[in-house]
Amino acid sequence: MCYAIPGNVKSIAGNLITVDYFGEKRKARNDFYDLRVGDYVYAQGGFVVQKIDETDAVEILDTWKELFFELKKTDAKLSKLYNDKPNLDKGFLKIIDRATYGKSIAHEEALRLLLSEDPDEIEVLHKTANFIRQKFLDNSCCVHGIIEFSNMCVCQCTYCGINSENHTLKRFSLNTGEILEVVEDAVKRFGFKGIVLQSGEDPSYRSEELLDLIKKIRENYPVFIFLSVGEREEEFYRKAFDAGAKAVLFRFETSDSNLYSKLHPHSSLKERIRYLELFKDIGYIIAGGSLIGLPGQKAESVIDDFMFAKELGCDMYSFGPFIPHPDTPLYSHNRPDAEYVLKAISVLRLIDPYGKILVTTALESINPQARRQALMGGANSIMLNLTPKDYVGLYDIYPDRATVDVSVENQIADALQLLKNIGRAPTDLGI
Ligand code: SAH
Q1: pTM (two decimals)
Q2: How far apart are CA 400 and CA 403, in angstroms?
């Protein structure tokens, strides 16, 4: 099974094309192919990643056709909104009502929702978030694969298990050939259309090497590339975009500059944000976000982070729980409850009806049910781990990561089963 549906090119205006998927139109950017109206393409993240043969496309579309509409029906049924709780607080309902129409909610309203401890309110919040996701984004769910290719890092982030001060950790770094083997499997064997290349901040991995890797992936595999390699020089990011990487996964970690400085003795929030602005300027699709439940972080600050991410213009949000790692300075702090993070995800959906919201592996790690719950509460994107099994345990950013001991085949089977049950199409239908 593939992770995207081929679309039919309906119109072309410069490098912006309109693609049709069973009658639904989406826009996508085409930087690589010579296209004509009537051609078939795969798009990911709003970019055309592959042009495909008409015969192949028609065959694939045939297998999808029934399922495509069946999934939509299931999703529409599961995301219906009805209020069977007559005694809810009026102030709460007013916020929910406005959000239902896609009107953005204010900081204090979002905070009111996040701080709610009332089970009925929380249930209505999740249902509303799911309703909004369905109404504004339909049933597509991005399924990207992540390859963690090096755990070497020069940073001292006090929450992170691969920080340079953790001398007990065995370090590894995959070379270009090894990464390409993983990509080959991901694309050719498993059908991924979007991959994330992630590492610690590893200067021994030279920028030229990374650029060469991106070019080789681009030349050989029709796949959308996300970079998640931290703070590298501006020139690298400009060249990487031209080489074919079109998205970055780069969290600002917290938008509270005092908290940021405490957690990152080597850096500043200003510097981190400068990067995000640079990425925007270059044209990257941005997946940004922060950690939820950091020591000293108040609920107000979580809402600040959401508002900040929206203002930055993030295309995708990656907000996940802080999980204390035993070999870091923050080992003795508590992690947040999964319920709090799930509430936060639903609030985020009310803040931005349109952004893609990722269910992070960290959230799945603190509650195995959380993937389903988050997808039923506003989220619409997941990531599967493609890191080779000899290394995945060493990418030890926090303990007991979900899926480290699950094969790629089983991760895919689990994900597809879940998506089918809740009526989501494992696709990325572009911008
Ligand atoms: N070097 C890249 C990737 C960093 S690791 C970069 O700088 O963007 C990816 C993410 O793991 C980080 O952004 C951080 O938010 C998350 N992470 C690190 N330690 C964590 C912990 N203890 N709990 C939860 N998430 C953590």
Answers
A1: 0.95
A2: 9
